[in-house]
Amino acid sequence: DDAKPVEARVEDLLARLTLEEKVSLVHADSPFSVSGVPRLGILELRMDDGPMGVREESAPWQHVDDYSTAMPATLGLAAAWNPDLAAAYGAVIGQEGRQRGKDIMLGPSLNIQRTPLCGRNFEYLGEDPFLTSRIAVNYIKGEQAQGVSSCAKHFVANNQEYERNSINVEMDERALRELYLPSFHACVQEAGVLTVMGAYNQFRGCHCCESDLLLDKILKDEWGFKGL
Question: CA 47 to CA 44: how far, in whole Å?
Fold first, then answer.
């Protein structure tokens, strides 16, 4: 019933899904998509990288006529200290993603640069949480205005590539609150980002994608995040 609030419609759908259909919605059926449930009108969910433009559809050895704009590295965007430029940057990616049928663009990347050896420093927005927040909020507003969801990533403390799937990040509460969380907080509460991606690493002994502290207590309970 299109006249009902989204939350009510979601609850109605959940009650109609079989167990097999529920499982199908929580894992991918390709590198960047999740199959839908046609009998209930749930469409396929299509995603793509990412922070600096829409990734090509074909594998590198299968180039056909696929193309997208190669945007400047987002570290360079942050170095411009220009929120309006960030909004325009996000809008370009949103427009190209929308034209190609994407529902979610996997970016921006919000991790704070803490080591020069981090393999993703070029796509992070620098060392300062305030600058990161201002650029990211406007990037997201520009992108989501095109009808495509942004995805704030990687939540949280994904600051190195070496053993990133297993390393356990330990930090005190003040560092977490003053350095690592502010950009995510701003994206949720100011920009209304619709999706958040968990980090690869562990945080205080628990993988971030399984963390009750990060996903439930902070993201959902404290910040009121209602998205995916």
Answer: 10
Joined tokens for residue 112:
């704070």
Q: pLDDT by residue (tens digit) across 113-138?
A: 998 889 899 999 999 999 999 999 99
Q: For 153-206, write each residue's pLDDT tens digit.
A: 999 999 998 898 999 999 999 999 999 999 999 999 999 999 999 999 999 999
CA dist., res. 213 & res. 110, Å (int): 19
Alpha carbon 161 to its chain centroid, in Å, reads 18
Question: Which of these, 115, 110, 119, 207, lies nearest to 161 by C-alpha position?
Answer: 119
Tokens for 205?
């002994």
Q: Are strands 149-155 and 195-198 parallel, antiparallel or unpaired?
A: parallel
Q: Residue 74: what residue type? A: T
Model confidence band, residue 61 (pLDDT cutoffs 50, 70, 90): low
How many CB atoms are closer than 10 A to CB 130?
11
Residue tagged 């049928």 (tokens): 101
Residue type at 185 in one-letter notation: H
Using CA atoms, how far apart are residues 120 and 179, in angstroms rounded to an integer?
Answer: 18
184, 155 contact by CB (below 8 A): yes
